Amino acid sequence: MFIYYRIVRYKDEHKKESIIKATIKLVNDIGFVSSSVSKIAKEASVSPATIYIYYKNKDDLLVSTYIEIKKKIGMALLKDFDDTLPLKDTLLRSWKNGFFYIAENPGLFQFTEQFSYSPYGELVDKKDVEKYFEPIIKVLQTGIEQKIIKNVNFDILTTFIFFPVMILSNTRLCSNFEINEDNIETAFSLAWDAIKL
Amino acid sequence: MFIYYRIVRYKDEHKKESIIKATIKLVNDIGFVSSSVSKIAKEASVSPATIYIYYKNKDDLLVSTYIEIKKKIGMALLKDFDDTLPLKDTLLRSWKNGFFYIAENPGLFQFTEQFSYSPYGELVDKKDVEKYFEPIIKVLQTGIEQKIIKNVNFDILTTFIFFPVMILSNTRLCSNFEINEDNIETAFSLAWDAIKL
DNA sequence: ACAATAAGTGAATGTTCATTTATTATAGAA
DNA sequence: TTCTATAATAAATGAACATTCACTTATTGT
Fold first, then answer.
1. Residue B192 near residue B88 (C-beta atoms within 8 A)
2. What is the distance between the terminal CA atoms of chain B, rounded to a whole angstrom?
3. What is the pLDDT of residue B1?
4. What is the dihedral of CA B87, B92, B169, A178, to 10 degrees?
5. Which of A131, A136, A134, A151 lies closest to A83 in space, CA to CA?
6. How far is CA B3 from CA A68, B6, B9, B136, in A?
7. To which CATH superfamily is domain B12-54 assigned?
8. How far is B6 from chain A (nearest CA, A)?
9. Is the Cβ of A126 closer than 8 Å to some Cβ of chain B?
């Protein structure tokens, strides 16, 4: 007869968080090309080998960081989500949530932009990300059925109602767009004109 | 008395072109992170040292490649440019030019996307790029003055009338948007609804 | 034919890379 | 307190990196 013990020295979640934080900071400051595991380790004040306790390899670290951020952004977007409101108001609320979250966390956003336009983007299972945005996508589909918005290819719709948030939030692309209630509403009115029937 | 000779072996422009071509191919295939000078040299069938005859360093090679591509895209966009047409027609023509050029040269477009969202983007003097797009920007300004399109922040305007071309052309972002006359015109009608007064 | 000079190169440079190995530190059940 | 599994690490590894070096090849006016 055998008795199995489970004696564990628990992983330090604070350490994991500081590795992710260091990854984001470094990638934003010097880019993927220059962000080595040792530099990330130094920034997080851990040994390079420690990173390999929490992540399989460098790719795993970067992909996990990306998904973690996408989850946060998705949740921010859906704050106070209420699809009993008129469609237009539901969308505008998400716009505002998105703009203000990105404005308060520019590093998170910048990381995802750089990541998703690089070949790292292909390492991500899209479904792992899309699930965080599902409710708002469903709202659009309902809008088409109720003949409130144009019945066009879904890619076209998202181009005009989601991407403007990302483009206008990108200070590199839009240096003259100041993020405040008025400007968001002005921009939103163009988006709404584009998609409304 | 001295006699100075000026005897030159001229640089082989074909070689320079093959280095740029190799750079684009490699960056698209494996990304900036993995594209080393030696790999680019091998792809171009030259010695790594040869690259340093044509370019100061690796950054110079990448930035030059980017500007070269932007010039080509800008010129494609402005093919048959005619600002005596109604504003709407001028813009639609550019949309079609843009879509079809990108569709025929997906590698060029993909390189610029990856480049401009990476820290390499900061190495480029924006004016070196903007000049290739100037005529079409002026058309928009005229449209505002003539009260044909909305008088809003210029960043908002470009978000709805230029970026959709880039988003919809990006197969990674829009896998369900097929590029043909009909679909381009449908997408353009949303853009026009957004910006028209 | 030859002098002059730039184009072009393969190999070597020292550095940095991602990852592994060998070892120590520590938490917690018995 | 003792024991054990895992966290954590410093140091080591071989491969790959950007760039330079010493050299050869090609071109062209004289």
1. yes
2. 76
3. 35
4. 20
5. A136
6. 70, 10, 19, 53
7. Homeodomain-like (1.10.10.60)
8. 42
9. no
Q: How far apart are CA B153 and CA B191, in angstroms?
A: 16
Q: Where are the domains of chain B?
A: 12-54, 68-195
Q: Are B172 and A119 within 8 A, CB to CB?
A: no
Which H or E element spans position A98? Answer: helix A87-104
CATH architecture, domain B68-195: Orthogonal Bundle (1.10)
Res B129 pLDDT > 60: yes
A57 touches chain B (CB under 8 A): no
Per-residue model confidence as pLDDT tens digits over A71-88:
999 999 999 999 899 999
pLDDT at A1 over 50: no
Q: In terms of CA atoms, which chain B residue is nearest residue A149?
A: B190
CB A115 within 8 A of CB B31: no
At B27-45, the pLDDT tens digits run 999 999 999 999 999 999 9
**Token pair for B70:** 């932007």
Distance (Å) of CA A136 to CA A55, A96, A184, B99:
32, 14, 18, 28
- Under 8 Å CB pairs connecting chains A and B tally to 118
Is the shortest CB-to-strand distance from B8 to strand C under 7 Å?
A: yes
pLDDT in tens, B79-118: 999 999 999 999 999 999 999 999 999 999 999 999 999 9
8 Å CB contact between A179 and A188: no
Note whether A27 and A111 are within 8 A (CB).
yes
- Residue A6 clears pLDDT 50, i.e. is over it: no
Confirm or reject contact between A100 and chain B (CB < 8 A): no
pLDDT in tens, A141-158: 999 999 999 999 999 999
In contact, A62 and A115? CB cutoff 8 Å: yes
Quick check: B165 pLDDT over 80? yes
pLDDT above 90 for B6: no
- Residue B42, Cα to own-chain centre: how many angstroms? 25
Residue-wise pLDDT tens digits, A107-117? 999 999 999 99
- Would you state the torsion angle of the CA atoms of residues A176, A181, A186, A189, taken in this order, to the nearest 10 degrees? 140
The tokens for A43 are 């920034």
